[in-house]
Amino acid sequence: MGEYLPKKILTNRDLEKILDTSDEWITTRTGIKQRRLAGKDEATSDLAIKAARKALQDAGGMDPQDLDLIIVATVTADMHFPSVACLVQKAIGAKHACCFDISAACPGFVYGIVIAQQFIARSTYKNALVIGAEVLSSITDWQDRNTCVLFGDGAGAAVLAPVNSGGILSVYLGSDGSQSELLQMPAGGSRHPSTHQTIDKRLHYIKMRGNELFKLAVMLMANAARKAVEMAGLKCDDIDCFIPHQANIRILLATAKKIGIPEEKIFLNIEKYGNMSSASTAIALCEAVREGRVKKGDIVLLDAFGAGLVWGACVIKW
Asked: Please, which residues bridge with residue 168 across strands?
């Protein structure tokens, strides 16, 4: 595992100076105290490259030329094309790797490791580098106090390879495109190409209907978690560490309560980083391992939900 977080910290107190909001209001409703912002010279690929190098070092100093596959989950790519994965490949020298990006919003890292698992399980590739990386500050509307307090930037990476026992025990993925209007960035694609009009209407920023999403998030994350645990032949009591997508503290606690996982088993870092979309679960897993919250033999439950709508849960025996 490896992660990278930009140096710049934006606190709730900082936001008080530019918005009609307060530290108390943000903390009470979201659990967020601060978030990281990429520098002016940092794009998503820059964050992804640094996380990738740390993950390779953590994998026993793995030679990038031995990588077979690079998958980057992101909704904030440097540009429409080429993929961030190809930019990572070039930077780290993984010249033999197959590379592509996936767009699965907040569950992107979970989707990425599930895709990599399929290639490895079928012996198509021996290993894979999966990265969740976002510069959400680039599509955040800093005039919208309801959304701009939520998001941050970062990248997390994992190297996957075959194991003799344990590893990924089960996965459960789902989608509901009928709810796509609840969370989206309307412009910048083929539906609404970039024009002076789309810019003036601020359509190149995240648009979110938070109250409706809240109810769906708890229900769908709880259901995905139960399904994945059941498919692994386990019970929620067997989970040693629950790592949900760090979106909103109230969503996370409500989800854990709904599936019967006590608070002491939840790994939280939302206070420090906010919602980093596909990077959130990757960075949380990385920190949980480093801090000893996840140890060899532990049962880990990853669970995420986001725009699409899409969701995914994954049970891992570490």
From this structure: 316
